[in-house]
Amino acid sequence: MKNREDTMHIRLINPNTTASMTAKIGVAGARVAAAGTQVSATNPDAGPVSIESHFDEAVSALGVLDEIRRGEREGADGGERVDAYVIACFGDPGLLAARELTTAPVIGIAEAAFHLATLISTRFSVVTTLGRTCIIAEHLLQNYGFAHHCRKVRAAEIPVLDLEDDGACALGRIIDECRRAKTEDGIGAIVLGCGGMADLTDEIREAVGLPIVEGVTAAVKLAESLVSLRLGTSKHGDLAFPRAKTFTGRFDYLGS
Ligand code: 2AL
Fold first, then answer.
1. What is the pLDDT at residue 78?
2. Lower Cβ count inside 10 Å, N or C end of the chain?
3. Ligand 1 pocket at CB < 6 A
4. What is the average pLDDT score of the chain?
């Protein structure tokens, strides 16, 4: 058996179908990974090109589950086994369902960033993309029990795909919003609220002068910790593999 302390494989799943964002997420994850950690990045074949509504998120969750199933199949077919998965969209779409499909750890970038932010500050704010997505982060903060650590969820009013467009001035608008958070919110740290911001962390930190917690990189380091501690998703209780059953119609491929 492979010695997991020396070598491991973390699969980053970008839940949207924009390949340039997937590549960027892969580079950001690989940059912080330990020597001996292999990082691969994938996205579903089908689904929204960006996730910025409840509808986008619901559709993208199915793609995430397909990607987990694909990762598990690769390992079972003699390919490179996946030791941990990261769901690299700030709504953590499909997180609990994904955990049911594997014994490997599955970490969402929002939950990873919230956890790390509480370790380095007593209060943080989130800076995300469009205002309409703030409620998604607020629901996660409540569900995960982090609401009282977060002062405010702010939006830079940037459509997600503007993060892929050098001409869209996204970085400047995110920095402006982070500076407002620093002066107005009474916080010690900022959490970046989109996987597409993974390459901007250093510039934002320099410009704002606060610790900036970015979810993709936070999740990679948490995944490494869990794998090296041999902690995988519990199969006792609700995260056990789903009961075998028939799925009808276009979901028949999910049945057994
Ligand atoms: C995201 C994200 O992380 N990726 C995506 O497509 N949408 N979340 C967000 N709040 O914009």
1. 83
2. N
3. 16, 50-52, 89-91, 128-129, 133, 160, 193-196
4. 96
* Residue to probe by mutation, ligand 1, list 90, 140, 197, most atoms within 8 Å of CB: 90
pLDDT over threshold 60, residue 103: yes
Confidence category of residue 76, pLDDT binned at 50, 70, 90: confident
236's CB contacts (< 8 A; 6+ apart) are: none
Q: Is the pLDDT of residue 63 over 70?
A: yes
Rounded to 5°, the CA angle 59-60-64 comes to: 130
Tell me the CA–centroid distance for residue 165 and ligand 1, in Å. 15
For the chain, domains (ranges, CATH) are 8-108+218-248 (3.40.50.12500), 110-215 (3.40.50.12500)
What pLDDT, on the 0 to 100 scale, is given for residue 5? 52
Residues 6+ apart with CB under 8 A from 142: none
Q: Give the global pTM.
A: 0.96
CA–centroid distance, 66 to ligand 1, in Å, is: 19
